[in-house]
Design brief:
The complex is a heterodimer of chains A (192) and B (265). In chain A, α3 runs parallel beside α7 and α8 (131-159) crosses α9. Chain A has one domain (2-191). In chain A, 73% of the residues lie in helices and 0% in strands. By secondary structure, chain A is an all-alpha fold. Chain A contains nine helices and no strands. In chain A, 36% of the residues are buried. Chain B is α+β, with helices and mostly antiparallel strands and 265 residues long. Chain B folds into three domains: 37-91, Orthogonal Bundle (3-methyladenine DNA Glycosylase II, Chain A, domain 3); 99-193, Alpha-Beta Plaits (2-Layer Sandwich); 195-265, Alpha-Beta Plaits (2-Layer Sandwich), CATH 3.30.70. The chains are: A mainly alpha (192), B alpha+beta (265).
């Protein structure tokens, strides 16, 4: 049981990395990876929200959609629930965990539109994970996201000091680095 | 058609929606954070254009900074003294008199004044012209291009292209600095409203070159600088500038200028 969960976590964080092999959540991956600090902020917020939303969407799918045979509604219901959840979490943090709220800052509401969140929720349902497995999958996936965005941010910080050919400056070199990272992450495929 | 299925989906989805709505509604009440009452008042007092002229992200950003004491009450260049006084009242401070500024375009060459190298038919935007030969169709490389990037940037309808050159409406100008940032030739600057005389030319070519290009271009003859009693006029790179801090608005330079590059505002 535990062994299965560990394998699942390794698989979804490294081997099937959400950004680098599933191409989900590319927008924040490229958008907020200019500095390691902001990348970490985004990563933490994503871990927080994906883990929570995995639990909530798992519960909704299990106890609301399945009994009524309405699983075809999952996408729209999940979007609704995730958006509301992010709003709620934001309010909660603002009231009770002011320091975490200011640390996550603008990234928290941005996550509503991060497709990785919806992606994880739907993967959980499609692969028929139990709620515990789904939560672990969600957590591991978001850790994988954080790892890759922080690595990319590190690379971009280093690139600031390099003399990049003019045609590659800005987004092109970032996309090239992201592609090379994806190839590097292919190496994890032999892990499992 | 399975009518029950449709009804059920509508009911469940609607139910979830209503539940989420009510839940969030209650949550807003329960988790309401008391914000500084003054913040709301300051936001209401500010103009609300979100122009960014103050250097903060929008009016709310400035309001935050004012309430925290990081920004002076007269930081908003758009509202000027009127808004500064209202905010000072909210904050319980004395408002310092803020100097009114206006934008000034350092070029007065109309279509008739300046010669053209070629005709340009293309996208009507000054910033595009950095891609065309010689930085624009006009022979003078320093002057106003007249395609109105500043006009588009202005939120207060205070700058217009008249006869091929941008002219600031001094009464409407709020000195937000949008046009200053928009001009690719860096012609626009903010000067004190009280400054009477300015050099309306930015041409840095030598005298004969300028003379061939433009009827009203500054040729760097230094007549103005030599005749200025308070040394407010300096000539550098064959172009005169008047320092509004030193200028006493006597108008000698205006009278002496042979090319009429100096304007009376």
């Amino acid at each position: 049981m535990i062994k299965n969960l560990i394998l699942l976590a390794l698989g979804s964080s490294l081997v099937n990395n959400v950004v680098l092999s599933q191409f989900l959540g590319i927008c924040p991956f490229l958008g907020v990876s200019k500095k390691i600090k902001t990348a970490l902020g985004m990563g933490t917020a994503v871990i927080f929200v994906i883990t929570l939303s995995s639990i909530v969407t798992g519960l909704i799918h299990e106890f609301l959609l399945k009994p009524f045979d309405l699983t075809f509604l999952k996408t729209i219901v999940f979007i609704l629930v995730i958006a509301a959840l992010v709003q709620f979490v934001e309010m909660f943090l603002k009231k009770y965990l002011k320091s975490l709220y200011s640390a996550l800052g603008v990234y928290l509401p941005l996550i509503t539109t991060n497709c990785a969140v919806l992606g994880v929720a739907i993967t959980n349902v499609n692969k028929e994970y139990s709620i515990l497995e789904g939560t672990v999958n969600g957590f591991a996936t978001s850790v994988g996201f954080t790892v890759s965005i922080v690595i990319l941010a590190g690379i971009r910080e280093k690139m600031e000091y390099n003399n990049i050919p003019k045609a590659f400056r800005g987004m092109p070199i970032v996309l090239v680095s992201a592609g090379l990272m994806a190839i590097a992450f292919c190496g994890f495929a032999g892990l499992l | 058609m399975d009518f029950n299925g449709v009804m059920l989906s509508v009911a469940i989805l609607g139910g979830v929606g209503v539940f989420v709505g009510i839940f969030l509604g209650i949550a807003t009440k329960v988790f309401k954070v008391d914000v500084d009452k003054r913040l709301e008042d300051v936001v209401n007092a500010l103009p609300g254009n979100n122009c960014g002229g103050c250097g903060y992200p929008g009016c709310e950003g400035l309001a935050n900074a004012i309430v925290k004491g990081e920004a002076p009450v007269n930081q908003c260049p758009v509202g000027g003294d009127k808004v500064a006084r209202v905010i000072a009242e909210i904050m319980g401070e004395e408002a310092k008199e803020s100097e009114r500024k206006v934008a000034f375009v350092a070029c007065k060459a109309t279509c008739d004044d300046v010669t053209k190298d070629y005709n340009y038919y293309g996208i009507e935007d000054c910033r595009m012209l950095s891609f065309v030969p010689n930085g624009g169709p006009k022979s003078c490389n320093y002057g106003c291009l007249g395609f109105g990037s500043c006009v588009k940037a202005c939120e207060f309808d205070a700058i217009h292209v008249i006869d091929g050159v941008a002219v600031v409406d001094r009464e409407k100008c709020k000195a937000c600095g949008k046009c200053v940032a928009a001009c690719p030739k860096n012609l626009i600057s903010l000067i004190p409203y009280d400054a009477k005389y300015q050099v309306a030319c930015s041409n840095k070519e030598k005298g004969p070159v300028t003379m061939a290009q433009c009827k009203t271009g500054c040729i760097g003859c230094s007549l103005c600088a030599r005749n200025c009693e308070v040394k407010a006029v300096t000539v550098q790179d064959f172009n005169a500038t008047i320092d509004p801090e030193l200028c006493v608005n006597c108008g000698t330079c205006f009278e002496k200028c042979p090319k009429k590059s100096i304007v009376k505002l």
